[in-house]
Fold:
Amino acid sequence: MEDIRSHRYENGKPRLRRFHQARWDEPIIFELSRGGQRGILVPEVEEEIRLQVGDPMAGLPPFMRRGELPGLPELSQPQVLRHYVRLSQENLGTDLNIDVGQGTCTMKYSPKINEQLAGMPKVADVHPLQDEDTVQGILEVMYRFEEMLKEISGLDRFSLQPRAGSAAIYTNVSIIRAYHETRGEADQRDEIITTIFSHPSNGACAKTAGYKVVTLYPDEDGYPDLDALKAAVSERTAGLLITNPEDTGIFNPKIEKFVEVVHDAGGLCCYDQANANGILGITRAREADFDLCHFNLHKTFSAPHGCGGPAVGATGVRESLAKFLPVPVIEFDGSKYRLNYDLPYSIGKIGPFYGVASVVVKAYAWAMSLGAEGLREVARTAVLNNNYLLKKVLEIPGASAPYAKGKRRIEQVRYSWEDLSAETGVHSEELGLRAVDFGVHYWTSHHPFVVPEPCTLEPTESYSKDELDEYAAILAHVAEEARTDPEMVKTAPHNSTIHTIDHTPLDDPAQWAVTWRAYKRKVEEESK
Amino acid sequence: MSRGMEVVHPYIPNSVPEVKEQMLRDVGAESVDDFYEDVPESLRLREPMKLPRPFLSEYALKRHVEGILSSNRTCGEYLNFLGAGCYQHHVPAVCDEVNQRGEFLTAYAGEPYDDHGRFQTLFEYASMMGELLNMDVVNVPTYDGYQAAATSIRMAARITQRRQVLVAENINPDKLSKIRDYCKPELEIELVGYDQKTGALDLAALEGSISERTAAIFLENPCYLGVVETHGDEISRLAHEHAAICIVSVDPISLGVLTPPADYGADIVCGDLQPLGMHMQFGGGQAGFIATRDEERYVMEYPSRLFGIAPTRVKGEYGFGDVAYERTSFAVREAGKEWVGTAAALWGITAGVYLALMGPQGMAEIGEGILLRSRYAMMEMGKLRGVEGPVFEGPHFKEFVVNFDGTGKSVPEINEGLLSRGIFGGKDLTVEFPQLGSSALYCVTEVHTMEDIDTLVSALREVVE
Structure:
């Protein structure tokens, strides 16, 4: 009898998966349409209502009555379902892959129980403008979660309203502006400082808010450069927006000094805690004397990423800035929770209602499943996993981790394949696309590529040692292939849903097509 | 679960002590503390955070959270007539089935290869919205309709290189607050009044305000007060005469029966997707769309991602990718247009599912049904002594303002009476629109049966008469 297992291991280690992603060759939904089919029926209107009202369109001028029905596809319900389930199979979420390859994004496990809780009618079917007495439950969850964030950050008040990290950054910038306005210095203070290894939205949000952006580059060892900061601050400085640890996984040991320098210049300091997963319970915004911060509940606090939202960027401030928070804030008088709109200095509304309550429920449930010790365990395990993976990756010839030589990292590492690329001509992006053939995602870096041939890995706490070994083995295999069979890598992916995309039309206004109708039109125009 | 003092947490595979020890040995570290060497002592937390005791078992956690949430009252338990930006429509089961698929729910930023499904579903979402809106370019959703409005305005200002923006005063006041905050650094917002009788925009006032300084005129249709704007064609003509841009925020669920704004001259159309398959979620189901014609000067001003279709090296294979990526902050940081980041993509996918299920006929029928039901509710409520409804003479879609001045009762008093009868009454407008007296904004959709409306009317009768 053949021992099947003997083919699955080599020298006691598992061989790489013979992965192949689903390839349904699925048509565009419009191609599945057949006139007259229905996917769902809508509730019928009672005859009595029709009789009493008469022509429902009567009050509308003729030009406001839609003449032609919208050209939507016509499908039966099972066809719609099959189409979308097939497309879902052509997608690689954290539920499927060893998702350590999307550094900076904290692709951790999103517990299923939290989905159940957030999907309950007690959350899903609640209108935001109901009488406060009828929404005490959800207000209590939001209030309790704010209390937890206060302790986790050391700051004094939070708003859960911003609908993602960048929205929180913009909110913080608006608060910084409001603060300087009350001091009569808003016109003078027109610069915001950030670092190149902070998320690009720090610069982009500050610019959108009307600020001149000063971007600091690291010193030779990859640490944020204190001398560069000292040279940058002035009476024009409105604030500092900084990530720590930065996207290199390096913790800025002089962060207190950074804050002090900016404070001395009259600016405020905002802690972008997108990379907080490795420091929960270890160090906080308060101890470093930050004025504002934000956490991504869809990253650090386990709410799923949803292909890019919905999300929450929880914004925290010290007491003196609480009056600027967006309205409403949630108050508790010991017996009742209520929404307080009475903040005369508030920057106002930054979005509808109170943010994404379902995401808050998930984050709250996650934090309550762990407690203080558990959160610290999350951080310490994420950091252990990262340093373990670091060791494994650096064993691969051609890989390096620039900066902070010989030092450990916090929760992620920005690696470089510069040596491998110089040797083989294969680029980091190409390595990543070959990794797809083994069932994992891989990401390079935000732009610009300060680290050459970059790759950013963040293992979080959610992957086992064996899974980290598997990811490292995939990278080792692909790196070796770059030497032995570079064409295989350069023409990847081979086992994915689709093959190499021709990107030319996407940057050509005559050819790009963001909708099916535009595509059909442009194809027809060109064929004429 | 726990061995002595150490908890092996089910979400943390390597919390098994032996595994940790082995990993530490493998990396040559004494303790996890070694990895934090760069964190100065002065910044370290010296004692454990003071957080509530956790519920370690899934069952205990479930009981705890359900226990808190149980005090909520839902729109399934009560009859709900609240709208004002968040709407109770039926959510087809297939919408939930698709957006709860782990492959979509837990994906994020994969390449167009490993995440082909995300790209195709969002391309299809944009394509179906394009049909509904009669426009060729639709973005990957932004956070919500407020953000879509604010970004549309800033896009218009960049396109025209002008600073003044005219905003219809019958707009959602919260949305206006967002627009003011978002436009503060660059633009002047000027309000244009509305006709107190019809509820429509005051065309004479618009003519008086518009000039060659005007970047855009922004209006909602239907507006916050529920009235369908019937002068959209004249408003956009006026805008175009001054080389300004006409921006219309629209309720997408109205577009099976109402003319899409592009057809009466709107250049940028925006709004919120929540009615198209998202549960209300206490306001968490919002997602913003922005649509334009396929003109380079418009496309290049979007901050959002735009997913386009492209060939692959295999003939007949559909591929997708980012259109004009270099305009985004992902590509060029602060040199990009505003910013792009996580927003509400899953609700975009869901809205696509909704439109695919509804089809052209479904959208027409739901629109007609809403028109009929809301009109019936207006007629019946207007019969009550002291109740004026609707306040405005213009046509309505699903929302309308009801005035209670003649009852001698305030809106909070009336809503309290309704609440005790199991009904969430309309949104109190007393603070937002004091000129309307004791008025409330009511919303009626396809979920309301004739009996529901009659129940509301008889309860109101008891409360006011």
Summary: The longest strand of chain B covers residues 214-221.
